[in-house]
Design a protein that fits this description.
This protein is of the alpha/beta class. The protein is built from 14 helices and 7 strands.
């Protein structure tokens, strides 16, 4: 180990001795307010990566680097090594091509056999992810798709969450959002449910999430856990690190009050004790409900990223198109695409018009205030002049 790396490690240990995990950061004036010690740690990690010559521009992001630091207890060299392994995996897996090339045409059929997806936000503004493992029909599922495609779909959703859901929630919550709240319904799940394909998916998903998307889980509620699942959980828990395990709550059938403490009933599906049914989407698990579908927020994200909505979308641009939700966009007919595009443009025009009207009103108010200030200033000047004139007349009378 070089002397410079030894210095980085010693500095990181001094900076982070006894430090816990910081909460999501608040936004002031549109700018994230970073903790000073976070900044110091991220700068040390950047220096370590620059020495290796491995820091792609698209991943040279404060919060991305901070997640790897948290995963490794703020040990800069360990975080650097984990980050480099992530870069290698992204290249080998073809992550950068997924956004523009992956087409999950079997989305609807998969959802019927394996209900899962994002639905609304929790009370802190984090995306809520739900899986109904108890409703999983693995035999039917594997007739509609393959294990390999399910893994690619999982990575696609992770990228969509990082590039679209988190930024959209950050704007809505007016604070940095970089983690999710998850709910897994395990009704009827037991040791017999952990078949070879199920074990493969669990292992792959866990490996990808923990190694390449670290520190993105805020809290996980496992609900409807019966005696069979609790036996299985003892086995599964051995694969999960202590840090993640501490974020998991295993609940029985009496879970509603715990969920409502974290999630407003309007954002909770009715099958979990909430009020939402999403009838227009064929059910909550088909809706991908959330601020990441708001045309105004999509437009704002396009503006922030310097995107042009009329250009052909590739790479990260794809995430700012409403056609990515849900990710079965190639199933739409040409007419549906045209209608959706037209509706999207109308929504954007309405948002722009509303913002313009707000600006005009603000200008009118400012102008009126300016006039009032000028009027007061003139009155003050006139009174001051009259006062001086009266004083002059008095002096003349005295003389």
């Amino acid at each position: 180990m070089s002397s410079s790396f030894k210095l980085l490690r010693s500095l990181s240990k001094k900076v982070w001795s006894g430090r816990g995990t910081p909460e999501e950061l608040h936004i002031k004036g549109g700018v994230s307010v970073h903790d000073l010690k976070d900044v110091q740690a991220v700068n040390l990690m950047r220096e370590a990566l620059f020495q290796e010559g491995d820091l792609p521009e698209e991943l040279n992001d404060f919060h991305t680097l901070l997640r790897f630091l948290r995963m490794r207890g703020y040990d800069v060299l360990k975080a650097r090594d984990s980050f480099l392994k992530c870069l290698k995996w992204r290249e080998e897996f073809g992550v950068y091509q997924l956004a523009k090339e992956f087409e999950f045409k079997e989305y609807d059929e998969v959802q019927r056999s394996y209900p899962h997806g994002f639905h609304g936000v929790d009370k802190c503004g984090r995306p809520v992810y739900i899986e109904r493992i108890g409703a999983l029909d693995l035999e039917t599922l594997l007739k509609k798709t393959t294990l390999d495609r399910l893994v690619k779909h999982h990575v696609y959703q992770q990228e969509k969450t990082t590039n679209l859901r988190f930024p959209a929630c950050t704007i809505t919550a007016n604070k940095k959002i970089a983690s999710i709240t998850a709910i897994i319904d395990v009704t009827g799940v037991g040791t017999s449910s952990f078949s070879k394909p199920a074990r493969y998916l669990f292992t792959e998903f866990h490996k990808i999430d923990s190694n390449f998307y670290p520190e993105t889980l805020s809290c996980l509620f496992i609900v409807n856990a019966g005696s069979g699942f609790r036996i299985l959980w003892k086995l599964l828990k051995t694969f999960i690190d202590a840090r993640t395990s501490g974020k998991i709550q295993v609940l029985g059938s009496d879970f509603k009050s715990r969920l409502i403490e974290a999630i407003d009933p309007s954002n909770l599906p009715d099958f979990l004790g909430g009020e939402c049914k999403c009838p227009d989407h064929g059910g909550c698990m088909f809706s991908d409900k959330g601020p990441w579908n708001d045309p105004g927020i999509l437009k704002l994200l396009q503006t922030v990223e310097g995107k042009d909505e009329d250009k052909h979308t590739t790479g990260e641009d794809v995430w700012f198109s409403t056609e990515t939700t849900p990710d079965n966009r190639n199933e739409q007919t040409s007419k549906e695409r045209v209608d959706k595009s037209l509706s999207h443009r109308i929504d954007l025009l309405q948002v722009t018009a509303a913002k313009t009207e707000q600006k005009v009103r603000a200008m009118e108010v400012a102008l009126e205030e300016t006039k009032q200030v000028e009027c007061i200033a003139k009155t003050f000047t006139a009174n001051k002049w009259n006062h001086r004139s009266q004083q002059g007349l008095l002096r003349r009378d005295v003389e």
